[in-house]
Amino acid sequence: MSEPLSQRQRDRIVDAGIVVFVIWVSLAQFGSQGFGEYKDVATEPGAPGFFLILLTGLSLAWRRDSPWAVLAMTSAGSIALVALGYAVHVPAAMAVALFTFAARSDRGGVWPPIASTAVAFAAMAVVESETLELDLEDYVFPVVLFAGAWLLGERRRTAALRAAEARERREREERLSIAEERTRIARELHDSAGHAINTILVQAGAARVLRERDPERSLAAVEAIELLARETIEDIDRIVGSLREEGPAERQPLPGLERIPDLVEHQRAAGFAVELREEGGEGERPPAAVSRAAFRIAQEALTNAARHGSGAAELTIGRRADRLELTVLNPVGGPAPTRAGGGLGIVGMRERAQLLGGTLEAGREDGRFRVRAVLPYDRSRE
């Protein structure tokens, strides 16, 4: 199967067709002495006229690369033909040269090519008035031809500019989408790695404390560290690998509500007593954005509770008809947690909730620290 033609090859084919058409129109006038209208006054067809028509028509093959030179060549050739008395009254080559200027996106000013063509056509008319004795009405069709060539070229230019703007807009939107996706991946990587490091710190501390008193629990904590570290490294390899690609970053599957039981088990393996409760269940399944935000909020809240609490926490997930409610309660005796492991902490959790049109409250309540997020279901954000 042959390869498709390039744009330049297609342009050359079009130019070849135009050259053939212009030469044919000019030779038709040349051979018939203006289709018989100027037979009494026009010069009989001869070699000089034939040579000029070929030279003028063939020059159009370079109209894209050297438009000014082609306009000069077609103008000079048209004037020379009528100066020799040949009845090539309709300068098709000049009209094509003018069209080329009108269609170019980099043509510069409008008036230079129009003025140049007008001067050349006026000179041609002056010469014709001496050789072919034409009347004013004989110039109506050539003027209409020039005007039509310019308007057609202008329309072609406008369409090309609009297509270029649309293409640039699509490319800009694609670049923005890629940047947003990579930012999202980087943020999820930060949250996941931050949680893993904090959990490893807690488990390492538990393993150290329990090393002699309870070797089995100490060994379990070390095994949990190994498992979590392996999972985190795999996540980092996958995500960083996608960020290194030249094209759009591959959308990574992100954890949602279905991963919260695994999150709780990780905490329990570290010796942190977490009680998971689920309420409700009626209504629609939460949108993906709500599910992901709930997981990250639960992850951050439990990490804070493990670091600043007293070794226990309650996580409650309430599924309502139009919203998801998530609450984390843990006894706390020290200062209120604001940041966990250098992460965004409560500020980051509140930001996630607000991005979904929800709310997040965090503060002390009867000797416990309470984090409560309300995430409404908005399908337009999926």
Which secondary-structure class do the elements indicate? alpha+beta
What are the secondary-structure elements, in order, as H or E?
Answer: HHHHHHHHEHEEHEE
Give, in spatial order, the strands making up the sheet with the most strands: 1-2-3-5-4
Mean pLDDT figure: 82
Number of DSSP E strands: 5
Number of DSSP helical runs? 10
Task: Give the radius of gyration.
Answer: 40 Å
- What's the helical proportion of residues? 55-70%
Distance separating the two termini: 43 Å
Task: Work out the strand percent.
Answer: 5-15%
What general outline do the C-alpha atoms trace? rod-shaped
Note the main sheet.
Answer: 5 strands, mixed
Please mark out the parts with pLDDT under 50 across 5 or more consecutive residues, or reply none: 338-343
Description:
With 382 residues, the protein is of the alpha+beta class. Among the domains are: 7-134, no CATH class; 256-382, Heat Shock Protein 90 (2-Layer Sandwich). 60% of the residues lie in helices and 11% in strands. The protein has ten helices and five strands. The protein has a five-stranded mixed β-sheet with strand order 1-2-3-5-4. Helix 9 links the parallel strand 1 (273-280) and strand 2. Helix 6 (140-210) runs parallel beside helix 9 (288-308). The longest helix has 71 residues, at 140-210. It is rod-shaped. The two termini are 43 Å apart.
Question: Which key terms come to mind for this protein?
Answer:
382 residues; alpha+beta; Heat Shock Protein 90; 5-stranded mixed β-sheet
